[in-house]
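new request in #modeling-help
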Amino acid sequence: MLVLGIESSCDETGVALYHTERGLLAHALHSQVAMHAEYGGVVPELASRDHIRRVLPLTRQVLKEAGCTLHDIEGIAYTEGPGLAGALLVGASIAAALAFALKVPTVGVHHLEGHLLAPLLEENPPEFPFIALLVSGGHSQLMEVTGIGQYATLGDTLDDAAGEAFDKTAKLLGLGYPGGPALSMLAQQGNQGRFSLPRPMLKSGDLNFSFSGLKTAVLTLVKQQTSDGRELDEQTRADICLAFQEAIVEVLTRKSIAALKQTGLSRLVVAGGVGANRQLRDGLSQAAAKKRFEVFYPKLEFCTDNGAMIAFAGAMRLRQEGRRTMNFPIKPRWDLETLAAPSP
Amino acid sequence: MKLLALDTSTENCSVALWLDGEVVSRQELAGQRHSDLILPMLEELLAEAGLSLGSLDGIAFGEGPGSFTGLRIGCGIAQGLAFGADLPVLGVSTLLTLAAAAPGERVLACLDARIGEIYHAAYEKQHGVWHTVSAPSLCYAKDAPELPGAGWVGAGSAFSAYAEALEQRYAGQMLSADGSVYPQACDMVKLAAPLFEQGGGEDAALAAPLYIRNKVALKTAERK
């Protein structure tokens, strides 16, 4: 079955073609990051205005790359939520109308299910059950995944998401928006041990996170370092970036290990944009070798939002749940735990 | 020629077919349920006419101005249908559509644009053809562009939202005004038909909403 996947929940338009026997045939992405950077954050209305310009050209591109025609498509998956309502509606309306024209079923996909299942697109996919660490600009969750559609939240952030903490801290250090990746780059030049930042919630006894205090700790540190009226020099900024990243990585790593221990599982899947962070990957891989668990990552390009994960998650559900009804619901807020497994 | 028109630019939701000059249509007050209604309405209409999407010659949609989200639903539906059925697409102005349906030949079409503003345009029909007297713009009702002469008929939601301000602005120039009318697909399809007959219409991917209000956020540099 050939499935077209359309992702338009936030600031990236992703389109892909996934075939249930032949695998991922093609995927294409348009990122709006540069457009929103001038505004210091995502402007929902501008995001929607861009999505509607991108979906069809990207669809043509993946069809061409895959050597398929429109009439080879057997089902269409779109991101139903969570996300920005206006942005979701763009993907949903185009998906529904195209499916109507092609007389194929549609399925609405949970964006986070897409992220969770993205590592299954790799050559050595993890087997169920596993623990998923989902870390992005909008989410920081630990989930127990026993199968497709069977997700239990073990821990969640009480305030900022991990990626959000990266971006806000970067902004505070004058690294622009979205500055998470810039912060990680600069951290590579940092000196270890010059600064130490708190590890929030490490001893909370549960699997929840809290990152807003860490951002405040960085603010305090910056104030201390600039109290004599001087600007932060490049090395100090790099040292702060490193200290910040070390704190986040340690919390994410130790909580992931605790989740494995609590559930008795031995596989960890890392998904979401922060999953692309080199130091997090190194930290988790080292812990995996030491504590004897396996860790799985999606390709770097499938850590951030993309159409491939939507096409894949959609394909897993389409055979059972494909709708031929013609409405196209969206769910801007949608708890992953409310999903059910596809019926056998 | 057989054409489809659809409009979701306001709280109304409408679809229409042009069947070689005959028009059949459906419309419903949708609030925010356009995404539930539009495709089933379309399917019903096609079934009644005994037509398939592929047997049509083109698709028109209400391009705006109107509710941003509504415009994108209409445009997204038009894109998806036209791409899937390999048909040309045409965007039709919601303000011109209001004018074409109004009882007069000098029409001031105004839609409520929220936050105190209106979408404004004026048209005059000469020898059966609509000419633009005042191009679509965004303004406060009290500052709306000047119009020549009298005998104007008003149409569109701004005449209920800003009735008094518009009455004052065009004192002595208006014959009547109806703030309860919506742009309707049945009127759009009539405007689109001659254009499609002249070979008009563009690729599905080029179909785009006409927002008019383009400043929707301040850049970081502008906030200082």
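bot summary: Chain A has a mean pLDDT of 94.
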